[in-house]
């Protein structure tokens, strides 16, 4: 009985593939997707929060798709180098991108010579979660809270430095917004990723770093750096003793990063649906949810349509924020 069923399945499969083949190679390729490893591009250096979460999603996607998802780091230009690579890839679904608010929204608003058009060249797949940002200090800075830091910065005009994972990113904007609202001067020091910025902070070479909470959370808990505040409207569960920047004297200050998966625009609908399913399964996996919370991230899976609406709304928010703070990054 099982032999007859097995034979029947083989005949049906052969018939299906024959039909697809007669319809053309693209239809066959879509039906078999994926039939080889995928490439997941991260536009930042290894070790940072984007990299940590991206690698976790890649591993879960590999399980869901039944093929390896190989992580490729392409740091530089605040994530624009990696994003450009995906924007120029074949629209076949085999190249996907870890896309964050910096590369998806802020770069297009602040970089005039960007080599990609986010709307025309990229396709949302699914949201993974949101990442609160935090400002941390090296232990040599004589400040234990935001008010003390602002007072110290005012007493040392032109001498205060803050590092981020790249010029023009959400963390850079956060630093510039804070300086504007607090009436202080801070010199931005960009790095190719958050990890090297934090290394320089620990070495005492810069005063502060703006980063996603996921990056320095272990250092904060170990007391190796001073956390002044998180950028979200409310405190986060993983760091309950760290106040928000808003409650520390700058009530209008609030934002967060987010992490999602995009691919090249023009991917066939069947392939996009397969990718969407794999990313959502990865994002909703109990192990992923637990790990995101442990890192200080907020699980917030969105399907393709939901992510597309949210992404477009972010352009309005950040365009208004940049204009209100009179920030020029060119």
Question: Outline of this structure?
Answer:
The protein is of the alpha/beta class and 330 residues long. It has helices at residues 2-23, 25-32, 49-65, 80-87, 101-110, 118-121, 146-155, 170-182, 194-202, 217-221, 269-284, 286-295, 304-324, and strands at residues 38-42, 69-73, 95-100, 122-131, 133-137, 161-164, 187-190, 208-212, 226-230, 257-264, 298-302.
Strand content: 15-25%
Q: In one word, what is the shape?
A: globular
Q: For the largest sheet, list the strands in their spatial order.
A: 2-1-3-10-4-11
Low-confidence stretches: none
Structural class: alpha/beta
Q: Would you count the extended β strands for me?
A: 11
Q: Rg to the nearest angstrom?
A: 22 Å
Q: Give the helix tally.
A: 13
Order of helices and strands: HHEHEHEHHEEHEHEHEHEEHHEH
Largest sheet: 6 strands, mixed
Query: Termini separation (Å)?
Result: 72 Å
In which range does the helix fraction lie? 40-55%
Mean pLDDT: 89
Folded structure, characterized:
The chain is an alpha/beta fold and 330 residues long. It contains 13 helices and 11 strands. β6, α8 and β7 (187-190) form a beta-alpha-beta unit. The longest helix has 22 residues, at 2-23. The radius of gyration is 22 Å and the shape is globular. The protein starts with a helix and ends in a 6-residue tail after the last helix. The mean pLDDT is 89.
